[in-house]
Design goal:
The protein has 2 domains: about 130 residues, PurM-like, N-terminal domain (60s Ribosomal Protein L30, Chain: A, 2-Layer Sandwich), CATH 3.30.1330.10; about 150 residues, PurM-like C-terminal domain (Phosphoribosyl-aminoimidazole Synthetase, Chain A, domain 2, Alpha-Beta Complex). Helix content is about 35%, strand content about 25%. The chain is built from 10 helices and 10 strands. α2 packs parallel to α3.
Length: about 325
């Protein structure tokens, strides 16, 4: 099968939202009136972000999901995506499942695939996503103010716990691993939450590299500090079993791969956030406050600071 047969068979779909989609030298996209483009790229590399035997359907889902998560953090509506993929070979069965997982999520969020590239090489997936948002409504990292509350969506740490099991750093029961592995392999981008937070959140970021590292980006961009209450962090029943161990704390604070949203909002917006949680059926938890100063201090139930080794994942450390 040639490169062009591969593209036509597995990645060419109608793109009704584009003026021109797959099949030419470039796509032609028309941004809605009054909107600007929000653009983000994420790369998933075999051996770094996933194992070689990863389920291709789930990998197709995740390749797009991590990009949708970035748009969620900006309060943007997803519109288009491109996919650049390096493949060791043209494995028909693998490609069929990968593209099925990718397009299942794309269809869920109304995303059209409008271009990309294929080449032979070590398995590497790079998606670029395009969304729309009014410039004045875009959520950014730089708006947090002293007194704001810090919130997170969903639960934290399950993906990191599942990865620790796969890496042999701890052992989970079959049922506990099954519960945690969904967060690792099939994250749910919080697009609806990002849209609902426009005009309410003062800042936002998606948690991809760990809560402390990503919250730290908000603090740096906003020029503020934070106090976080460890006992308020939302965790699953499975992860709670490991919270008395350093690895358990690490999964929650800096494990990464959560793809939940961390955001700040004024105290006056507290009930608005709770209303959004109820409307979306999504747990939103207040975990602390923005303060004057810099850096983040995490406190235990006795109000003592907790020491932790790593703020978050860094590819070059």
């Amino acid at each position: 099968m040639s490169e062009f047969d591969l593209i036509k068979r597995h990645f060419t779909r109608p793109a009704p939202s584009a003026l021109l989609g797959v099949g030419d030298d470039a796509a032609l996209l028309q941004v809605s009136q009054g909107e600007v483009l929000a653009v983000s790229s994420d790369m998933l590399v075999c051996g770094t972000h996933f194992f070689a035997d990863a389920d291709p359907f789930l990998l197709g889902h995740k390749a797009l999901a991590v990009n949708l998560s970035d748009l969620a953090a900006m309060g943007a509506t997803p519109r288009w995506a491109t996919l650049a993929i390096a493949l060791p070979g043209a494995d028909e069965a693998w490609l069929e499942q990968f593209s099925a997982g990718f397009f299942a999520l794309a269809n869920q969020y109304g995303v059209d695939l409008v271009g990309g590239d294929t080449t032979r090489g070590p398995l590497n997936l790079c998606v670029t996503i395009f969304g729309e948002v009014a410039a004045t409504q875009a959520l950014r990292r730089s708006g947090a103010m002293p007194g704001d509350e810090i919130w997170v969506s969903g639960q934290l740490g399950d993906a990191a716990l599942a990865l620790a099991h796969l890496q042999g750093r701890l052992v989970l029961s079959a049922s506990d691993f099954a519960a945690c592995s969904v967060a690792l392999h099939q994250p749910q981008p919080r697009v609806a939450l990002g849209l609902a937070l426009r005009g309410i959140a003062s800042s936002a970021i998606d948690i991809s590299d760990g809560l402390m590292g990503d919250l730290g980006h908000i603090l740096d961009a906003s020029g503020v500090g934070a106090r976080v209450n460890f006992n308020e962090l939302p965790v699953s029943a499975t992860l709670r079993k490991f919270l008395d161990q350093p690895l358990g704390k690490q999964c929650v604070l800096s494990g990464g791969d959560d793809y939940e949203l961390c955001f700040t909002a004024p105290v006056s917006g507290h009930q608005d956030v709770l209303n959004i949680a109820a409307q979306l059926g999504l747990p939103l938890t207040c975990i602390g406050n923005i303060v004057d100063g810099q850096g983040c201090i995490v406190f235990d139930a006795a109000n003592h600071p907790i020491n932790f080794e790593s703020a978050g994942y860094d590819h070059f450390r």
